[in-house]
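DM between two lab members

TW: hey, do you still have the Outer membrane efflux protein entry open?
JB: yeah, one sec
JB: this one, 209 aa:
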Amino acid sequence: MKNKLIIFFSLLVSITAISQEETNSFSLDAAINFALENNRTAKNASRDIDAAKEQKWETTAAGLPQLNAAVDYQNSIKQQLQVVEASAFGGPEGEYTALALGLEQSLIGSATLSQLLFDGSYIVGLQSAKVYLEISKNAKTKTDLEVKKAVVNAYGNVLLTEESVAILERNKTALQKNLDEITKIYENGLEEEESVEQLKITLSTLKAP
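TW: and the structure you got?
JB:
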C-alpha cells in the first residue's frame, strides 16, 4: 500500500509540474508512456536494474583471466664501486682497481596471467548478483504495472468527469428551455406559480458551483 501511495503521488507531482508549464493532450498510450518516462519510482527502478547489471559484470569479471603487466626503469646516476685486486683481471700483483657494480640504466618488464580455478565465495557472489538482477527486473515490471494501472484509472476518471460535465450541461440547457416555456404558460394564466418556482430551484441547484 505504501509503494502504491508513493507511485501515485510521484505521478501526481510529475503531471502537476508539467501542467504548470504547458497544457498537453494525451491519448491513453501516450499518457502511459509519459508516466513511465517521468515517474520517479519508475526511474529509480530502472537505475536499480543498471546497478544490478554493473554488479553482476564486476562479479563475473573477477573470475575471468587476469593479466597484470609492469615496467620498472632504473637510472643509476652514481654507481657503487668495489675495490678488487688487479691481478684477478690480469693486472700486476699488489695493485688494486675499482669496479662499478650493476648497470647505469636498466629496464625490466614483467607480466603475470592468473585464472581463478575454484572459489566458493566467487560462486556464491555470482549467484547473488544474478538473483539481485532478477529481483530488480521483477521490481521494475511491478512498478511499471502499478504506474500503468494508476494512469488508466486516472484517465478513466477524467473521461467520466468530462462525460458527467457534458450531461450536466445538457440537463441545464433542457431545464432552462422547460423553464422558459412554462414561464410563458404561467404568464398566460395556464400554469401554477409553484411549478415555475420548482423549476427555478432545480435550475439554480444545477448552476451552483
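TW: got it. Residues 120-187 form the longest helix (68 residues). Helices lie at 2-21, 28-38, 40-61, 120-187, 193-207.
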